[in-house]
Amino acid sequence: MIYPFSLQLVGLAVGLALILSHAFALLSPAPVGRFLRALPRSRPAGTALLALAAIWSFWLVQTVDLGEFARLRGILAIGVPVGAVLAWRFLEEFLAVRALGILALLIADIPLDAAFLRPEVSRLLLVTLAYAWILVGLFLVGMPYVLRDLIAWLTASPARFRGAALAGIAYGGVLVICALALW
Description:
This protein is mainly α. It has helices at about 5-25, 30-40, 45-65, 75-90, 95-105, 110-115, 125-140, 145-155, 160-180. The protein contains nine helices and no strands.
């Protein structure tokens, strides 16, 4: 296990994050919609997200047991910051989306780590969300324009936007209930 977080703590954190972020989107649809539409091409957001992803990746390279690849730790420790700088320099198009995809891949390990070998079937609510983050992360890194199109589709209709916000609040609520009652 990489992260020392319990299933209950991760379930509470993810559930509350979903509730708060989606409630904010539900209560302030216009500013959130403007922010979401500007995000894919935002260079400052891309820089910040890429820096966060690079720092997290560098920390993982330094601390995780790499097994048979341990001899490559030095090369990876150099490769992560060099790759981040090169991505920042040459991937100007949709940099924020690609960095968000990398972060989605990195963050998905936290709930998977917490749910590993746990007997509760309800843990699959968190595991399913983590695998959705992995799938979304792969798409965002490989096909970043998909997020722009999804945001445009989502913000085109107030009812659609409100429905997505309510769905996020409901899923977060289920995770909080499970974290408090079952995990």
